[in-house]
Amino acid sequence: MPKLAYLGPQGTFCEAALRRLAPDAERLPAANVAAALHAARTGEADGAVVPLENSVEGAITQTLDELAWGGPLLITGELLLPVEFSLLVRPGTELPQIKRIISHPAAITQCRGYLEREMPDALVMAWPSTAGAAQEVAAPGSPYDAAISPAIAAEYYGLDEFASGIGDRSDTVTRFVRVSPPGPLPEPTGADRTSLVAFLRDDHPGALLEMLSEFSVRGVNLTRIESRPTGDGIGRYFFHFDCEGHVADARVGEAISGLRRLCADLRFLGSYPRADRVATQIRAGTADDDFAEAAGWLKRIRNGQT
Asked: Could you tell me the pTM of the whole model?
C-alpha cells in the first residue's frame, strides 16, 4: 500500500483527489505543495498528489516552480476534480456574526461574487489552504468567523455548512497530478499527455517560435504553455509545456529531441494517461509508421540506393 503526500490538512480538495487517484493509499498531509513534493523526493512518501491548474484561476505557480527546480519527479497520472465551495461556520453562527472570513486566495477569488452580494462588509483574508481555514475557524478562541472550504471539511472539524455552492461558476474544475520518483513510465494508451519544462539557451528574436516549431512540424498539439520567471532578472523566463501524446510516440520523441538541442536544459516531467480520455488525433504523415518509413528511406539514400 503506497504512502502519498498531499496538500493538507485533512479535508482539502487535494485529499479528495488523492482518494480518487489512489483509494487504497496511505495519506500523508503536508503543510504546502513544496512539503508534499519534498516528502516524495526524500522517500518519506512514495509519491504525492498536488494541484497543477484550475479552470478559472489558471496554473498553480508553486507547483510549476517546484516541479521545475526541485529534484526530478515524474507525473504518472492526473485527475480533473469538480470544485464546489461552501461557507463553513461554528455551530450556532448567524449571518450578522460573520465579520472575518478566511480561505485560500484562489477560493476567495472564485467566490468573490457571493461575498460581495451576501456579506459585503466582511473582512476576507488569505489562508494557506481551504481546509486549513476550516481548521482555524474551529480552533478554540479563533478570531475568524467563517471559512470558504470543501463541504467535507465540516465533517473533519465540527463546523456547520452555512451556505453551499457559493462559487461564482458551477463548472469549475481543478487538475491534480500524481507524481513519483523517476522510474518506469505508464504504458501508452492512445490518449496520453506529456509534460516538459524548457529553459532557453539565450534570449533572441524568435526563440519561443523555434521551440513551438519543434512541435508544430511534427503534428504534436500543445494543450498548455506557461511562462515562469527564472529569477535572474526582468524578462528571463522558462516554459512549461503539455502536449498530446506519449514520449514513446515517434512524433513526440522527435519533438522532444529537437527541443533538447535548442534549450539550455529540458526537464521531462512524464507521459501519462489523460484524465479526460480524449484520444490523440494523428495528422497525416505523423504516425509512427510514417517516421519509420522516412528513416528507412534516408538510410537507403545514404547507402547509395534509390
From this structure: 0.89
Cis peptide before 9 (omega within 30 of 0): yes
Contact assessment for residue 133 and residue 81, using Cβ atoms and an 8 Å cutoff: no
C-alpha angle 239/244/246, rounded to 5°?
100
Give the mean model confidence (pLDDT) for residues 94-111: 93
The dihedral region occupied by 262, where left means phi > 0, alpha psi between -120 and 50, and beta the remainder, is alpha
Instruction: Provide the residue type at 306 as one letter.
Output: T
Mean pLDDT, residues 290-298: 95
Task: Give the Cβ contact number of residue 118 at 10 Å.
Answer: 15
The C-alpha angle 58, 59, 62, rounded to 5 degrees, equals 145
pLDDT in tens, 13-30: 999 999 999 999 999 999
CB-based contact 272:261 (threshold 8 Å): no
Give the torsion sign (CA, 277, 282, 286, 288).
positive
Whether residue 233 is predicted with pLDDT greater than 90 in this model: the reply is no
Query: Do 180 and 46 form a contact (C-beta atoms < 8 A)?
Result: yes
Quick one: pLDDT at residue 235?
Answer: 79
- Measured in degrees and rounded to the nearest 5, phi and psi for residue 97 equal -85, -10
Asked if residue 306 has pLDDT above 80, the reply is no
Quickly list H helices, the chain: 13-21, 33-42, 61-69, 105-110, 112-118, 130-138, 152-157, 207-216, 250-262, 288-302
